[in-house]
Write a structure and sequence with these properties.
This protein has 2 domains: about 170 residues, Phosphoglycerate kinase, N-terminal domain (Rossmann fold); about 200 residues, Phosphoglycerate kinase, N-terminal domain (Rossmann fold, 3-Layer(aba) Sandwich). Helix 1 crosses helix 2, helix 7 runs parallel beside helix 9 and helix 10 runs parallel beside helix 11. The protein is an alpha/beta fold and about 400 residues long. It has 14 helices and 17 strands. The strands form 4 sheets. A 6-stranded parallel sheet has the order 5-6-4-1-7-8, sandwiched between helices. It has a 6-stranded parallel sheet with strand order 11-10-9-15-16-17, sandwiched between helices. It has a 3-stranded antiparallel sheet with strand order 13-12-14. Bound molecules: adenosine-5'-diphosphate and magnesium ion. Magnesium ion binds next to helix 12.
Amino acid sequence: MSSFRTLDDLGDVTGKVALVRVDLNLPMKDGSATDVTRVEAVKPTILELADKGAKVLLLAHFGRPKGQRHSTMSTSFVQGDVEKVLGKEIMFIPEVMGPVVEQSIGILRNGDIGLLDNVRFWPGEEANDPEFARGIAAHGDFYVNDAFSAAHRAHASTEGLAHHLPAYAGRAMEAELKALDAALGNPEQPVAAVVGGAKVSTKLDVLENLVGKVQHLIIGGGMANTFLAARGVDVGKSLCEHDLKDTANRIMDQADHAGCTVHLPYDVVVAKEFAANPHSLRVCNVHEVAEEEMILDVGPQAVEALGDVLKTCRTLVWNGPMGAFETEPFDAATVALAKTAAALTEGGSLTSVAGGGDTVAALAHAGVKDDFTFVSTAGGAFLEWMEGKDLPGVAALK
Ligand code: ADP
Ligand code: MG
């Protein structure tokens, strides 16, 4: 894992200008952030560099301005939230290069922090224009990338800068890469993968990558319906991609050849209407789903058996809820399996890594988000990593 440099490899940075790519794309309501998790994630890197006497310039995108200045998408909108989390005043700099940036650097004292404007105001960012990257790089002495969540994009601030300046992974990036390596790069075996969520079509590459790497592939959620249907099970009115029958069968064949056991539910929770606690709710065997019923969660017997599978494993990687967890009681399987995984993690027998927008929400709902070894909030980047792709922002650090 020493294939990239970290802050530990920095020499004396006193008075040096650090260009630090962070994720400040915060969810906003009425002019302030509703969730500052992303700022908290990059706080250690920012404060470490500031404490060491660097002049820290934060570089981030905010919204999708598509290469133009947009009055509602300036990073100045998150300045207050960033200051609150850091416990420090920072200087907003309404450019990313040129004389204004140069003058601001002159005003900043060692250990001070500046916030550059939305890097996506300039078309060179998303085009990964080397001239644009060179223009930003001219202001810095070194580059730190602490935005894993943007690492699947080859943009100037996430990839290009690494070609013009000495490049380092920040602390959040370092932690993410270590956790991901422990889960799929170089995991302790046996490894189980839980893949759930709504649709197979959005996670085909994930499934194909996993069958070659894990010993147990646990399929839940709406995706399980597609696999069950491919095996000839009548899934009634369930969410199901019938046109992916051949694909599902091919994945199961690939798993067979690779020695990966595919686990599909054998009992399920069904209802005739999708609502909280519907009258038509019942638990049945997968072969007993009626024509007008929908499978909305994995059944209790299957969940117990899946918990037993996890007990035999050393590593777990999880993306996608097991059922329609936003609506009770279809959260039961997700909650139960998440609690089992959390307990095994606490007991020391399991390394557990999870990610995905709805997955993070589901683990928080189960009350175990902090009990997993690592929970990635990176969304798209996490999924591309699960697909086995080389992320450009990570590759550029190597
Ligand atoms: P993530 O964001 O973690 O990658 P997905 O977006 O793939 O996860 O899937 C999450 C969605 O899948 C949730 O909104 C959940 O309600 C839905 N879902 C899970 N199981 C079912 C099911 N059996 N039927 C319909 N929707 C389901
Ligand atoms: Mg989702």
